[in-house]
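User: What would this chain look like folded?
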Amino acid sequence: MLTLPAVTTHRRRLTITRLGTALLIVLGICCAIAALATPRAGLLFNNLSTATAQPITSGSQNGVWQIQLQTNGPTDVITQTFGLLPGGLSGWHSHPGAAIVSVAAGAATFYEGGDSSCTPHVYPAGTGFVETGGDVHIVRNEGTDALSLNITYLVPQGAAQRIDQPSPGNCGF
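Assistant: Here's the prediction, encoded as structure tokens.
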């Protein structure tokens, strides 16, 4: 029978203890990050299509109106329907690229994380807005009718279309 010297056994126990401690720290960090994300409520969504476009350089002008769109790499174009029941909320989040939003029904109340006064921006059916990439925000249905949005995301290829964020603390909800 082979026996290990006491020093080797002590080192092995110390290594196992350190490994266990490291794993607990990593697990704790992961749980803390998940706990910081704000919850979603009354949210329904359906991805209609996803496509990848090669780098985009496009522009158009019609009289005084113009648009310019440019990406420096492949871009995922994701089209989604998004619904919130009355009292529903998206949770604080951001996007790694732009999100072009049209309100199909109800009214979307939009709050920006960087707005210290927590000013609501209300978009009724038939209106639209653009969510800028990287900006932390939340959408709430503060009305009595179901909210329905059509959203097209333009994000770097392979990136998540949504990144959950902790509450920035500027709003009382």
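DSSP finds one helix and twelve strands in the chain. If you want, I can go into more detail on any region.
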